[in-house]
Amino acid sequence: MDEPPHTIPTTVLRDNREQQPWTFDGYAVETRDVTLSTGDYAVPAGCAHDAEADTYHPQFAVERKSGHDFLTALTWERDRFTSELQRAAEWTQPLTVVVEESWEALLCNRGPMTWRDIHPNQIAGTVSAWTRHYNVAFHFANCRQQAELCAFLCLVRHSLLRRFE
């Protein structure tokens, strides 16, 4: 099941709790639904598998967030989300959070921001603080399709970087 670390991934592990999963249709990969301890998407290489719990523990993962989910993670589910960020503290590469909403829409009261009681400064300040204090990298995409491509490219990059470790 593990792929050599110097190849582009042919399999993407997708967390089976993902509510609106990316399918990576049109990409040269297959997806396997599994339980991931951290993140929503990972590649098999570099994942430790706990057979007893049937859970994969990645050393790199991509977390998918819709615009609404991202704002919820900043506010009402902040403690749960920061716990996830803490699980990636020892990784060599940061947990990648791909948001299916543009940075501009989040800061200009468009998209999921409409009718929200969250000031743009709160969003910018939280993203800045989390980037400084946790092993996390945020990517904002204009739409779901671009977010899926961004996630795939991050997984490919991780697979290629493993070659040099």
Automatic annotation (TrEMBL):
Among the GO biological process terms of this entry, one is: DNA metabolic process
Q: Which domain of life is it from?
A: Archaea
UniProt-listed Pfam families: ERCC4 (PF02732)
Single annotated GO MF: DNA binding
The record ties this protein, via SUPFAM superfamilies, to: Restriction endonuclease-like
Q: Which Gene3D superfamilies match?
A: 3.40.50.10130
Which positions are tagged coiled coil? none
Q: Which residues form the ERCC4 domain?
A: 15-152
Name listed for the protein in its UniProt record: ERCC4 domain-containing protein
Species per Swiss-Prot/TrEMBL record:
Haloarcula vallismortis ATCC 29715
